[in-house]
Amino acid sequence: MERVVVDADGRVKLDAVKNEMAVTDSTGKTLAYVVPPALYKRFVEVWLASEPTSEELDAARREQGGLNISQVLAHLADVERRWKEQKG
């Protein structure tokens, strides 16, 4: 993970963060999102818990049906074509 070292003023501002926070430049452009350590830890726990198990991956591989990559690409091209027609 990359790190940014903040000065004392930045530290005071970050210590006040209780939930998520957007870090912006003077024009309002979002540069980053910051979350407190406890919330970050919870995000990671939820993310890791959502990873499929080996058994779930095996079951998904055995499933029949669905679309192959050519069919998916054709469908996406059709969706894009219809979207452009609608957009005018």
Strand order of the largest sheet: 1-2
Poorly predicted runs are: none
The beta-strand count equals: 2
Succession of helices and strands: HEEHHH
Walk me through the structure.
By secondary structure, this protein is mostly helical. It has a domain at 1-52. The chain has four helices and two strands, in the order αββααα. It has helices at residues 8-15, 37-49, 54-62, 69-87; strands at 21-24, 30-34. A two-stranded antiparallel ribbon has the order 1-2. A hairpin with a 5-residue loop joins β1 (21-24) and β2. The model has no long low-confidence stretch (mean pLDDT 91).
State the main characteristics:
88 residues; mainly alpha; two-stranded antiparallel sheet; 10% strand
Structure described in brief:
The chain has 88 residues and is mainly alpha-helical. It contains four helices and two strands; from the N terminus they run αββααα.
List the helices and strands and how they pair.
Layout: H1 8-15, E1 21-24, E2 30-34, H2 37-49, H3 54-62, H4 69-87
Antiparallel strand pairs: 1-2
